[in-house]
Write a structure and sequence with these properties.
Length: about 375
């Protein structure tokens, strides 16, 4: 599915203007104080961004993935954390859109699209990140309910969410539950047991959540009984959208680092000339721009595959892998180009430098991306 290119350009321009006017002036301060950006989130809500990829018939904007990726890039140019507030919400909404029963779609999607109910994804555990086979959180059937017990780690948006896509073991295997909760640190048997301090990606909460004898109705199983034991497959499929989000946000951070460097290299003089006149700096700018463009093309290519309704494990993996390494590299190069000033908290370069590594780790580490890419290639090209 593709949306009208003019509408897409208009929305991207609106988000870019929002970032320039409202995000850039406050991003560094909010980031350093690790403050949740309530006002910015309200504006994102007013722009309809919480309904970005939710179909129009459920109250969303019905964006194609290509446009969603462009929106995410623009937000990340301003402040990467804003894209994290959207990401797991959109993954949860995608799971419901693609696999939910009609009742589940009617029940959750409109309020998620409006941003009234916010979503989170809870796959990882303290001892199970890459190794999803090691998941231990369990959901025990009890009459027409399930009783959930276990500890989940790294739940972005965990505290503020009203619905969590949760991976838990049932007798059939790993099942995806859509767990309703009240926003806050406690709801029924769910508690936020720890807020995790982070190098960057501040302002958005990432928490540990503990489930103790927490009861959910049987109809919390995503898509109903037919999906018992199929949870991992469903979640890993939705992570393809998540990986495009990570690629796009890496692109945003890389672009911000590059654009700042391009400006600074022409402003800063050494030895009587702007540093942009030194070939060593020119080479850096050339390499940065080339990698940025390659990352953009890979991200667009992965988004196009998803929009065509095709499997995009290889493409989303490649985009996430390359764009995140590019963001990491460009943030470092930007710091070199800015010299001592890049190391200060007076410029956003140090923020890019702290935000970039998350994209290498989140949504499956880059080592795991290489495994996903290789497995997909081998499946597609058997002897
Ligand atoms: C800030 C933040 C937010 C997050 N938000 C969420 C969220 O909202 N929801 C959620 O479910 N998860 C979330 N995560 C979890 C994230 O997806 C995991 O951290 C990630 O998948 C890696 O898992 P791990 O940290 O347990 O590392 P491990 O799996 O322990 O990996 C450690 C190292 O070993 C490598 N490794 C592991 N297995 C292999 C292998 N087979 N071959 C080669 N190398 C391997 C890894 O690449 C890595 O270098 C978040 C993480 C962070 C840091």
């Amino acid at each position: 599915m593709r949306i009208d290119p003019e509408l897409a350009d208009e929305l991207v321009a609106t988000v870019r203007a929002f970032v320039a006017k409202d995000v850039l002036p406050v991003a560094s301060e909010l980031e350093h104080t690790d403050e949740y950006p309530t006002d910015l989130v309200e504006q994102m809500r007013a722009l309809g961004l919480f309904g970005a990829t939710i179909p129009v018939e459920h109250g969303g904007l019905g964006l194609d993935v290509a446009t969603y990726a462009r929106v995410v890039e623009e937000l990340a140019v301003g402040w990467m954390s804003l894209t994290g507030i959207l990401n797991t919400h959109m993954i949860a909404a995608t799971l419901i859109t693609q696999h939910g029963t009609p009742e589940q779609q009617k029940r959750w999607l409109p309020s998620m699209a409006a941003g009234d109910v916010r979503g989170a994804l809870s796959l990882s555990e303290p001892d199970a990140g890459s190794d999803t086979k090691a998941l231990r959180c369990k959901a025990t059937p009890d009459g027409d309910e399930y009783v959930i017990d276990g500890t989940k780690m790294w739940v972005t948006n965990g505290e503020r969410s009203g619905i969590v896509a949760l991976a838990a073991r049932t007798p059939e295997g790993v099942t995806c539950f859509m767990v309703e909760k009240r926003p806050g640190t406690r709801s029924g048997g769910i508690s936020v047991s720890r807020t995790i301090g982070k190098l960057g990606y501040k302002g958005v909460e990432t928490v540990e959540m503990t489930y103790t004898d927490h009861r959910v109705p049987a109809d919390a199983v995503l898509g109903g009984p037919v999906n018992l034991g199929r949870g991992l497959r469903l979640i890993l499929g939705a992570l393809e959208l998540g990986r495009v989000n990570i690629a796009a946000r890496a692109l945003g951070v890389a672009r911000a680092a590059f654009e700042a460097s391009l400006r600074y290299a022409q402003q800063r003089h050494t030895f009587g000339v702007p540093i942009a006149k030194h070939q060593a700096i020119q080479f850096k700018l050339a390499d940065m721009a080339t990698k940025l463009e390659a990352a953009r093309l890979l991200t667009a290519s992965a988004a196009a595959k998803l929009d065509a309704g095709e499997r995009a494990d290889v493409e989303a993996g490649m985009a996430k892998l390359f764009a995140s390494e590019t963001a990491f590299e460009l943030a470092t190069e930007a710091m070199r180009i800015h010299g001592g000033y890049g190391y200060t908290t007076e410029l956003p370069i140090e923020r890019y430098y702290r935000d970039a590594p998350l994209m290498i780790i989140g949504e499956g580490t880059n080592e795991i991306q290489r495994l996903v890419i290789a497995r997909g290639l081998l499946e597609r090209h058997p002897l």
